[in-house]
UniProtKB/TrEMBL annotation:
SUPFAM superfamilies: YjbQ-like. Belongs to the UPF0047 family. It comes from the Bacteria. It comes from Flavihumibacter solisilvae. Pfam families: YjbQ. This is Secondary thiamine-phosphate synthase.
């Protein structure tokens, strides 16, 4: 079994949902050596998250942002944790709802995503800064 790992830093992105599949693939070119395996992408932050969804129509990503903003509202007077602004606690909640990692099968040296699937960086802060990912691939 082969195992490869890389830590990458994504440039700062505006708040919203951003496709990062190609950045993940470029970061770990050794995936081509794996016939059958898995690739885990983990984000090392508590106010951003990862998910897999539609990669073709950008309105899906806009609707994701709209849904999460309606579901987890800012400026809730019941939030105690607000040290970094109105988007701070909502960002933590959104990140917990979506999760900190995705797991993608590797098949014949490629990520085995579906035709219309891509990996999203879900940036929940107005100014989240750079984001760090740990990408680990393993298999035969």
């Amino acid at each position: 079994m082969k195992t490869y790992q890389q830590i990458i830093t994504l440039t700062e992105r505006r708040r919203g949902f951003h496709l990062i599949t190609s950045e993940v693939e470029r970061a770990l070119p050794q995936i081509v050596q794996i016939r059958a395996g898995m690739c885990q992408v983990f984000i090392r932050h508590t106010s951003a998250s990862l998910t897999i969804n539609e990669n073709a129509d950008p309105t899906v990503r806009k609707d994701f942002e709209m849904f999460f903003n309606k579901t987890v509202r800012e400026n809730d007077p019941d939030y105690v944790h607000d040290y970094e602004g109105a988007d701070d606690m909502p960002a933590h909640l959104k990140a917990s709802l979506l999760g900190s990692s995705v797991l993608v099968p590797i098949r014949n040296g490629e990520l085995a995503l579906g035709t219309w699937q891509g990996i999203y960086l879900c940036e929940h802060r107005n100014q989240g800064g750079e984001r760090s990912l740990v990408i680990t691939a393993w298999g035969d």
